[in-house]
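Students often ask what a 'structure token' actually looks like in practice. Rather than answer in the abstract, let us consider Protein RER1, a protein of 196 residues. Its sequence is given first.
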Amino acid sequence: MSEGDSVGDSVHGKPSVVYRFFTRLGQIYQSWLDKSTPYTAVRWVVTLGLSFVYMIRVYLLQGWYIVTYALGIYHLNLFIAFLSPKVDPSLMEDSDDGPSLPTKQNEEFRPFIRRLPEFKFWHAATKGILVAMVCTFFEAFNVPVFWPILVMYFIMLFCITMKRQIKHMIKYRYLPFTHGKRRYKGKEDAGKAFAS
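Now compare that with the structural description of the same chain:
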């Protein structure tokens, strides 16, 4: 391989200006993502605000219903992955390998590990809204369709999918929301409780 054949290299072996620009842009983007990680409520409020702006845009333009339908299905798939355990208990029934969900009250506490973590769920959902917003600027994505049928299909799909997910949760006895290990009052905590 000769000099300058690798991706992003210029003739003199140094990274090209375009490559450096996009690398720097990626670093800035990742830095902002890292800074936003602890602000869960703020992130979701911004995402809900973006979805509200998107819905208003679609309503005012009276079009792009296929894009909205695709966005809804994408968000539904993300939500199902968010509610699902990382290791499917139905696959773990036969084998005793790896971690499993607790099935009895007195079993050791094991936190619920999601297939799609909250941060990745938020990031993918926000990117989906932004991509859908960009699509509304191109007439090619404005496919004429009778939108009430899409709404009916989406409601049916949502109900069927959630029913299946809830049955799965009931069958394998797990809740997708864990607030931490149960705390028991010790001697120090009991003294504080009686003092107040």
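One point worth highlighting: Helices lie at 17-36, 40-61, 65-83, 89-92, 118-135, 147-171, 187-195. Ask yourself how you might have guessed this from the sequence alone, and why that guess would often be unreliable.
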